[in-house]
Amino acid sequence: MIGIVALQGNREVARFELAHGADPATELATRGWSGEPVSAVRDSPEDLTITYAVRASHATVAPSAVVPHDEDVTDEDLAKVVPYQRIAAYAVVRSSRGILVTELSARTNAAGLWNLPGGGLDPGEQPSDAVVREVHEETGQHVTDVTLLTVMTRHWVGRAPSGRVEDFHAVRLFHTATCPEPTDPVVLDVGGSTSAARWVHETELASVTLASSVPDALAAAGVPVR
């Protein structure tokens, strides 16, 4: 379960469970609030609470009633679709050598695109700990100063690499982190979702074919892709 807590100053003004497929910012807007996430903490092996610092908002936002699906999904597939929610933590990792990026492997549906290092949370694992672990597994780098940056969600129906058709709710917790002693990246978790890793200077990011969520995460960190 993902719980959303909204604080205006020190006062709690909203608390709700995030429904499958829902986006926290949109749900806050429907309740008259806008703001930024300030923490994401595991309360139990299965539960996560995301806290937002909010301010009153008069914007009117309606949750989308249409769930997109991959073109190869048939009506027969839709009749037996399996709901699946994945909470993952990623990081915009900075160092003297640039921004750390990872290439998605053939085990994913976006092979060849470059992503930010990160991945799914283990049961009971705190998001910040997941960032440290995933960055090391995917690149061999050690990071510090892990701080929550933004939360992005995506909801669609598609076919997983296993062939199973899923009603997929991706909840992505993006962080910033620092690598004080960068080295040549090495993928330690061979055979996983990462096939390669490298440092890229901020001025060269425009020449890299990035996964869809990466430009927004970089912009949130003050690294616009030109």
UniProtKB/TrEMBL annotation:
UniProtKB keywords: Hydrolase
Cofactor(s) this protein requires: Mg(2+)
Record domain Nudix hydrolase: where: 83-224
PROSITE patterns for this protein: NUDIX, NUDIX_BOX
Keyword Endoplasmic reticulum set for record: no
Superkingdom per UniProt: Bacteria
A family per Pfam: NUDIX
Residues in the signal sequence: none
Family affiliation: Belongs to the Nudix hydrolase family.
CDD domains: NUDIX_Hydrolase
Stored PANTHER family: GDP-MANNOSE MANNOSYL HYDROLASE, MUTT_NUDIX FAMILY PROTEIN
GO molecular function annotation: hydrolase activity
Species assigned in the record: Knoellia subterranea KCTC 19937
The protein's name in its UniProt record: NUDIX hydrolase
InterPro entries xrefs: Nudix_hydrolase (IPR020476), NUDIX_hydrolase-like_dom_sf (IPR015797), NUDIX_hydrolase_CS (IPR020084), NUDIX_hydrolase_dom (IPR000086)
